[in-house]
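The pair is quoted verbatim below.
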Amino acid sequence: FGAHSRPPSAFAAIYAKGGIPCRLVHGSVKHRLQWECLPETVPFDPLLVTLAEGLRETKHPYTFVSKEGFKELLMVEGATEKAIPLLPRLVPVLKAALAHSDDEVFGRGLDALVQLSAVVGPSLNDHLKHLLTNVSRRLMDKKFREKITVALQKLEQYGGKVS
């Protein structure tokens, strides 16, 4: 009876099948992503949600591809208009990353939340109540206190006083 290996996660399976139009390029010092086509031309639906799901990964290269791909996709021109309709699907995925027991997954989720907030601005405000409960649970953890405080300040900056 060999050790049971867990089936690959949804993100790992999609990545393995080539469903994510970018690949990891190993540099001598720094890794980067190479896109098969311009990120501006990639449909955000479902790729942005898939990359957000990948934030919960704990194995290389999935951790890097999901984090960097999410960030680079949000930097393209017109990202605001493309990301806002996806918020109802992105929020539960980010919430799961923020609730994850792994500290690195939580950190990636927090970074992604701030990046998303910078792009969609006040559109995220209606969804914040779902996300902030998981963030507040980590606030008492010394290693995250400063990072969370900065993230909350940025959420307020991008979302306005209402947030």
